[in-house]
Design goal:
Two copies of one chain form a homodimer. With 400 residues, the first copy, chain A, is an alpha/beta fold. The first copy, chain A, is built from 13 helices and 13 strands.
């Protein structure tokens, strides 16, 4: 017999954070915060004030005021609170895809005498597509890791493909489909033992667990802000470069924002000596402002407390799904998963559509997966219970 | 004796559009709309509604609703109203720098047997930096056009450097410093006569004059939306690809948004057959929404009426500056300039700072230039008169 959800909500130390978000009463349960996070109330006010007071009134003077430094100052806030990164190693700009593209070139440039790049075949499409195209452009061979969907990318499996030719390894800390959590410090160590560098994709882990990039000696990392960072659809992504790479790192999109003096507009390109060298063109100021609000909410709650609630939410979800006899593809050990739980169901698309009809928003992933995203600051246990109940109902319905 | 500005404002058929913008009474004159355009009132409402109702309430379902198509649908609106481009040739996403980077690779790919790229040395820094770095990466040689600041990039001057080795020519339609307007159809024809392709940077021309990319047979074009399109700091840029290039065009940042089916997340990358192939990662939805509002304002006024007022504003500015004996670097023929007028002044930085102290915002450009940006929908003749009067005062002050 599972604990009633209201008991769990009453005991949740983060329960009050739910009121910090816009919660639509028309929805029974929003279980897709790992695709697009809910809207923080503070962001509504902040964006309104930004538009009226900063853009509308300061106009171009806003660039002198603070806008020019925002990619770095908000990057520092994000890095320190969420990534375990000291100041000066994180910037916010562009999309995850564009940032990953830059980091792939940067990482290849850091190992010029090697010619293989390793990625798992279950990685997110953009990661796979970019690795293939950048490898082709730079003359590298792609070595595919082919774990089962539910496998962790174990140190052992990875060890089999790493060697003296390995330049770069690209992995996601949390698998976007199964929710499998990879052991970031152990994998990073292994990659370094083979003399290669690692690029971590943190899209499905940033903001829901403690991450310690500096202390794990990570080389490069990238992640998005519209999931657990609640920064809005298409909000700018972040990238991280370890301090030891900063002075030599290169990226191919050399624009005026990566130049040493943005407004000197000098005749010859001199690259910025700082993390700004990873920028290219003008980033979305409103987007970065929204990221700042998202980061501050997480920093206020604390990533340790958030991870504790994330584990409780996924454990509760697993318990409810087990009771109903549904097939779970997410690892059953809390320590081995991120903050979403994935169900395999026949006719998954029809099930997902039926759930949405009834006010529960999950995420469908081809061909037969339903993801339940649990965003610790805005998802209640009551919401999970109601959502899973309707999921079970809809699966039953399609079986009839 | 110049006409009094109130007479000019009274006769201005676009005068009423000024009320469609947030006008800060603390400013005597905002003459920097060519760096960052003023905030349209409709955009305040639209962004507020977007945040509360679309992001806050529709949440992930917004992607199904319309967000996924916005880069193309708003691109089409922009293309048809502002660029003379049929549907399916324009997309909105990323920054101008990232888009230019993609187009440079696309253009080089369209002329694989040639090895020179031509750009003028007075072009905007991002254009020059990107041309140099992409040329180096792709093994091309950069041929520099070196016009004087005030020269038009004439068909004759360009003809001297074009030849059988020319793959790509990169030019700005309006020079960001002098305001010089290049003859886009004539230059495009000349480039084609030499078998090369052209990439036009429209940052300082889009929205203030009629542009006819399709009928001029332009190959590629890029431009920003935060100047005369009033879409806010760091709003996403646009890019245009001629229909004849679409089926074969390639760009290096192959992300999930350039794949043929965004949500199939298939194992192998299959590039979209449409203009979507120029996308990469998730674009800023709020940014595109703001672009749509900016485009609609311009479409409502009409680019021909806007160009007529732009010419009247620059002519009036030139007249006032002549009366005061200031040195103008912008061409004196209205047909040869865009919508800003640039003054050369000793101690230009100090002059610009003094102007800002007195409530007039111009734009300083190294080493001795002051740009007066005239945004036809939001700039009044009275504002120009007051702004130039204070400029003249401040120049006098520094001469004492």
């Amino acid at each position: 017999m599972t604990t009633p959800p209201d008991v769990l909500d009453a005991a949740d130390p983060l329960a009050a954070f739910r009121d910090r978000f816009v919660i639509d009463d028309d929805l029974v349960a929003y279980l897709d915060g790992n695709s697009l996070g809910r809207l923080p109330r503070a962001t509504v006010d902040r964006l309104g004030a930004f538009v009226r007071e900063e853009w509308g009134s300061r106009l171009i003077r806003g660039w002198d005021d603070a806008w020019v430094d925002l990619p770095v100052t908000v990057g520092d806030e994000l890095g320190e609170a969420l990534l375990g990164a000291a100041a000066g190693r994180t910037v916010i700009a562009d999309s995850t895809s564009v940032n990953l593209y830059k980091l792939l070139h940067a990482a290849i440039g850091a190992r010029p005498d090697r010619d293989e790049i390793v990625i798992d075949a279950t990685n997110f499409p953009t990661d796979r597509y970019l690795v293939e195209s950048v490898a082709a452009a730079r003359g590298l061979t792609v070595r595919w890791l082919r774990p089962d969907l539910v496998d962790n990318v174990t140190v052992d499996a990875l060890a089999d493909v790493l060697g003296a030719r390995t330049a770069v390894v690209v992995l996601s800390q949390v698998d976007y489909r199964s929710g499998t959590l990879v052991d970031l410090p152990a994998v990073t160590r292994l990659v370094h033992e083979h003399g290669a560098v690692i690029v971590w994709d943190l899209c499905h882990s940033v903001g829901v667990m403690p991450i310690a990039l500096d202390s794990a000696d990570v080389d490069f990392a990238v992640g998005c802000t519209y999931k657990y960072l609640n920064s809005g659809p298409g909000a700018p992504a972040f990238l991280y470069v370890a301090e030891r790479h900063l002075s030599a790192v290169t990226q191919p999109i050399a624009g005026w924002w990566s130049a040493s003096d943005l407004f000197a507009m000098s005749e010859t390109y001199e690259v910025a000596p700082t993390i700004r060298r990873m920028l290219s063109g003008t980033p979305s100021v409103a987007g970065i402002v929204a990221v700042q609000e998202g980061v501050r909410l997480i920093a206020e709650a604390g990533v340790d407390a958030i991870r504790a609630k994330s584990e409780a939410l996924t454990a509760y979800t697993v318990e409810l799904l087990d009771d109903a006899g549904l097939e779970i593809v997410t690892p059953r050990e809390p320590a081995s998963r991120g903050s979403h739980v994935t169900v395999r169901a026949p006719e998954a698309r029809r099930v997902a559509d039926a759930m949405i009809e009834r006010g529960v928003v999950p995420d469908f992933r081809e061909p037969d997966l339903i993801r339940l995203g649990l965003s610790p600051l805005s998802t209640s246990f009551a919401e999970v219970e109601a959502g899973v109940r309707i999921l079970v109902d809809c699966v039953g319905g399609t079986r009839r």
